[in-house]
Amino acid sequence: MFYLNMNAIMAITGMVVVLMLTRWWPNNKRVLTLLFSLFFLLLFSKKLLLFYAVYTLLNYLGFVYLCRTKLWRKAAFLFAIGANIAAVFFGVRFFIMGIFHNPLFDAIIYLGLIYNVLKVIDAYYFAYFFEKEGLVPLLDYSNYILFIPTFTSGPILKFRDFMADSKKPYQVDSALFADSIKRIILGLFKKIVLVTWMTGIFNQVLGHDLYTHQSLFLMVWFYALIYFDFSGYSDIAIGFGRLMGYTMPENFKRPFLSPTLTQYWRNWHATLGDFFRDHIFMFFSRKTPSRLTAACLSVLIMVLIGLWHGFTWLYLVWGLYHGILLAMENLFQLSIVNKKKVSKAYFYTRCLVTQVLVTLAVIIYSPDHQAVLRIYRGLLNFPSF
After folding, report:
1. How is residue 105 annotated by DSSP?
2. pLDDT in tens, 287-301
3. Rounded to an integer, what is the distance from CA 269 to the centroid of its chain?
4. pLDDT 10s digits, 304-359
5. With contact defined as beta carbons under 8 Å apart, do 226 and 362 qualify?
6. What are the residue ranges of helices labelled H in 310-343?
7. How many CA atoms lie within 13 Å of 107's alpha carbon, on the beta-carbon side?
8. Chain mean pLDDT for the chain
9. Residue 304 buriedness (CB in 10 A; 0-12 / 13-18 / 19+)
């Protein structure tokens, strides 16, 4: 992860300084940002730069084809998306799981291809639905795919929004500068101080025999840990992205005050949830869906999000768990609670219930699946007094 490397932090900071010094040039952020991204990847790994040069060019050719052609458009659209999904699930994911080995993949593990493929898919959707009106230069398309602040872990940028920002001159006023610096410092504090300290405690408790109370503690503690981890990275990415002249979407919108799971998934890792909702609903149900259709799509979306996190049965179960709960909210019309129209007691009770439901499954995010199973078994290991 780039933001745990001080050289990477200094390089991105230097790029911000260069952009500020060249703000008189109308195209400074379009040209200089791409040059910076290419040199950054080159210094990180020559193999990585080569991979992304080929990957970006191939997808841009597909993007241009979808924008311009009337022939076999839908087939080309589905093939392009399917090929990119296959590259993630059967390439990167299987490599990480140790199912196969290939020297071409050694750097891809660390670069977050699973995030960038979502941006590629969003661009294909834009090309498919907007045709010639959606065509953009290779310069801007490459900037979108290779944008360093969000390269490895998001937030996931929308193609339309990024292209709109590309047309605007570089502008960072004093208020935006101060707010962005604060976000970066806050993010670094979360990542370097809080996450490191909390990980140590988590591993210490995990090293002992687990009883019900220890397992409950680990589930709650891990939930807080991944919040600081994910939101810390987002804070840094948002801060640097805005300093480089682009609007960065918020990824965490007070998720702990979500009274339903439907609202929770609009507030926790919001750009990921937005991506899957927008593209799945757009593909399967462009009209307002019925409650039953929305419920079925909720299950599908959460299963896909689960498998996107990891191609394992635990993530499949996690997706089914959240999907079924969201489906029930849809079917029983419990998906939205308006804080202004209900009592405080009811609102906060619903928030508490939502957090309990999330906490019961959040430990699956742990990369150590044996530890996950130990924690769940510990829930049923009641201490004797």
Report:
1. G
2. 667 888 889 999 999
3. 6
4. 999 888 778 899 999 999 999 999 999 998 999 999 899 999 999 999 999 999 99
5. yes
6. 313-331
7. 13
8. 89
9. middle
Quickly list DSSP for 266-295. Answer: TTSSHHHHHHHHHHHHHHH-SSPPPHHHHH
Q: Is the pLDDT of residue 139 over 60?
A: yes
d(CA 353, CA 350): 5
- Residues 6+ positions from 318 with CB-CB distance below 8 Å: 306, 309, 361, 364
- Per-domain residue ranges of the chain: 2-166, 178-249, 253-385
CA dihedral 202, 203, 208, 211 (to 10 degrees): 30
The two structure tokens encoding residue 333: 């019309």
Q: Mean of the pLDDT values across residues 150-162? A: 91
Q: What is the mean pLDDT of residues 159-173?
A: 94
Q: Is the Cβ–Cβ distance between 146 and 34 less than 8 Å?
A: yes
CA distance 100 to 91: 9
Asked if pLDDT for residue 100 goes beyond 50, the answer is no
* Encoded tokens for 216: 């409950």
Structure confidence at residue 98 as a pLDDT band (50, 70, 90): low
* Neighbour count for residue 164 (Cβ, 10 Å): 12
Q: How many helices (DSSP H) and strands (DSSP E) are in the chain?
A: 17, 0
Dihedral angle over CA of 308, 4, 9, 118, nearest 10: 0
Residue 127: alpha-carbon gap to chain centroid: 22
